[in-house]
Specification:
alpha+beta; Cytochrome p450; three-stranded antiparallel sheet; 16 helices; 11% strand; globular; binds protoporphyrin IX containing FE
Length: 404
């Protein structure tokens, strides 16, 4: 099937309350303002662009969806055309009771005990990227730094080949930026990823290694082998959940701090284990939370006073909840000392992020290494920062002056 053969064109959004679209060009740059403006009028916005789909923007409404697996299924985890081909990626696409077994299988690999030893390697990797900028007066902090770090982390943890990074990023771009409007692209990405992962599994079944790929290729739950397509789904998920999510969080932090030298000064003066680094990292995650999920409505109910029906789609707008004044004091202020910060960047309920330990480590290490190497860096105002729209929102180019 040729790309674009099944594409739907959408006009620019003029009314975010009744016609929202997460692939609209304004979403990437202006999403926080959009959510705030919707929240002032109503807790839930609607659209008919992808069939009927809702967008809750308050903590109360987002939490109600995330905690209710009886009316909201994870079988659809993004808002796309209703006839979109969907493939399983457990545990994120699983509902109870299956969800628990799939999640239990992945959790140990992402435990603090398993992730903490990666710190030194991640630091060395970041320093290597910084060394490549030796002598440069300007750089792209997303393309030359942020985007590489999570690929390195996930490859170290799973055994996937890091030299295929461009392939992973291309799948992610097409999957998140194009596929919601274009079934042909979604199908093609699925075919390519499946073929790729099958080759890796075949290799590990013939030549087992001490890595996660080998473990997943042989996965069993309660003594029963896991279905082949679900095993492929675990790795499909780790590729799409583990890379541009953290790359977006690191990039957002770098974009933010480039404009706040006073905060950089305090952070550079702090030791690695100072509380300040902890509160600052959590504030990056709250303020710039990159991940918006979705659910399929499977039972009649209401959210924020809005009736919803089986077959409707529902965003789980975690980033919007992080800006709800009913949940945070002055959410519009980026406060690196924010002590009480119960943000939901990693989700809520049974699907809460499995990779949060790894993500937090990658974000803090990347920010520490960059800010210390370039304490005077600033945005290059002659160029433009570009943002990814949709499910994973974050800067994809961040032109900066290094001001050594
Ligand atoms: C800053 C980076 C990240 C953010 C903001 C983030 C956010 C999220 C969110 C909001 C969910 C909940 C999904 C839902 O409710 O449907 C989730 C689930 C998940 N994330 Fe992350 N994530 C990040 C990094 C990672 C990384 C690095 C990995 C692994 C390599 C990962 C693996 C997963 C998995 C496997 C799930 C599914 C858990 C389940 O369904 O039980 N994530 N993530």
């Amino acid at each position: 099937m040729a790309y674009g053969a099944d594409q739907v064109e959408m006009p620019p959004v003029e009314n975010w309350l009744t016609d929202w679209d997460w692939l609209d060009d304004q979403w990437g740059v202006n999403a926080i303002d959009i959510w705030n403006s919707v929240r002032e009028q109503c807790p839930v916005a609607t659209t008919e662009r992808y069939g009927r789909a809702f967008m809750p923007v308050t903590m109360e409404a987002v939490a109600a969806v995330a905690n209710d697996t009886e009316h909201f299924s994870s079988i659809w985890v993004n808002v796309s055309r209703p006839d979109a081909p969907r493939s399983p990626a457990p545990p994120i696409t699983s509902d109870p009771p299956d969800h628990h077994g799939h999640r239990r299988l992945l959790l140990p690999a992402f435990s603090p005990k398993n992730v903490a030893p990666l710190e030194e390697d991640l630091r060395a990797f970041c320093r290597g990227l910084i060394a490549e900028l030796d002598g440069a007066s300007a750089a792209d902090a997303a393309e030359q730094f942020a985007q590489h770090i999570p690929v390195h982390g996930i490859c170290k943890l799973t055994g996937m080949p890091e030299e295929d990074a461009d392939l992973f990023r291309d799948w992610i771009y097409r999957n998140f930026q194009l596929a919601p409007r274009d079934n042909a692209v979604r199908m093609q990405v699925m075919i390519e990823m499946t073929a790729y992962i099958e080759e890796l599994f075949k290799d590990r079944l013939e030549h087992p290694r001490d890595d996660m790929l080998t473990f997943i290729a042989n996965a069993e739950i309660d003594g029963q082998p896991v279905d082949w397509n679900l095993k492929l789904g675990y790795i499909r998920l780790l590729i799409v959940a583990g890379i541009d999510t953290t790359w977006s969080a690191i990039g957002s932090g770098l974009w933010h701090f480039a404009q706040h030298p006073d905060q950089v000064e305090r952070l550079v003066a702090a030791q690695n284990d100072d509380l300040l680094w902890n509160t600052a990292t959590e504030e990056v995650l709250r303020y710039y939370a990159p991940v918006t999920m979705a659910r399929k409505v499977i039972g009649e109910t209401e959210i924020g006073g809005c009736p919803v029906h089986p077959g409707d789609q529902m965003l789980v707008t975690f980033p919007a909840a992080n800006h709800d004044p009913a949940a945070f004091d002055h959410p519009e202020v980026f406060d690196i000392d924010r002590a009480n910060n119960r943000h939901v960047a990693f989700g809520l309920g049974i699907h809460r992020c499995v990779g949060s330990n790894l993500a937090r480590l990658e974000v803090v290490v990347a920010l520490q290494e960059w800010l210390r190497a370039f304490p005077n860096y600033s945005l290059d105002e002659t160029k433009t920062t570009t943002w990814a729209n949709g499910q994973v929102r974050g800067p994809r180019t961040i032109p900066v002056l290094l001001n050594r």
